[in-house]
Design a protein that fits this description.
Blueprint lengths: L1 H21 L8 E3 L2 E5 L5 E6 L5 E3 L3 E2 L2 E6 L12 E3 L6 E2 L12 E3 L6 E2 L12 E2 L7 E2 L13
Parallel strand pairs: 3-6, 4-7, 6-8, 7-9, 8-10, 9-11, 10-12
Antiparallel strand pairs: 1-2, 2-3, 5-6
């Protein structure tokens, strides 16, 4: 009897654990606009969640579906090896965690005056980044936001 209970407990634990592994930590939206994957926030603004294109120079959209783009999400451009210059439009207030991390060819970023938060590791490992100016409205820069960037060093 005791071994049956133990076996049942072990099987139940394994089933629950395998179910937890199959759920992604952050599911991406299936909404797309050109080469961008995005979601609509509770306040009816847009978060760009991913970029799937291969352009060297990008000007991000300021509106999608007539709604303002306000957030560049966590890992949105992570590891993109094509982008060299990116312009972020007015209206964007937050650059998410690791949003541009390890974009090793990125050399220039144009930030909007509306930006107030750069999250942790946003530009981590952007080893060629030499041209970026921080707007006056920034109130928060996360840990390691510019680690291993040419402009600031390790």
């Amino acid at each position: 009897m005791k071994s049956t209970k133990t076996l049942s407990f072990i099987l139940a634990t394994l089933i629950i654990f395998s179910m937890m592994l199959s759920v992604p930590a952050q599911a991406l939206s299936d909404k797309t606009f050109g080469d961008y994957r995005y979601s609509v926030n509770d306040d009816d603004t847009i978060t760009i969640e991913a970029y799937t294109g291969n352009s060297a120079e990008l000007t991000l959209p300021d509106k999608i579906e007539g709604k303002s783009v306000q957030v560049i999400g966590n890992n949105a451009f992570y590891g993109n090896l094509n982008v060299k210059k990116i312009s972020i439009p007015n209206g964007v207030t937050v650059l998410g965690e690791s949003a541009f991390a390890n974009c090793t060819e990125l050399t220039k970023v144009v930030l909007p005056e509306t930006l107030n938060k750069i999250d942790n590791a946003t530009f981590f490992g952007c080893t060629q980044l030499t041209d970026i100016s921080l707007p006056d409205n920034i109130t928060s820069i996360g840990n390691g936001a510019f680690y291993y960037c040419e402009i600031y060093g390790p």
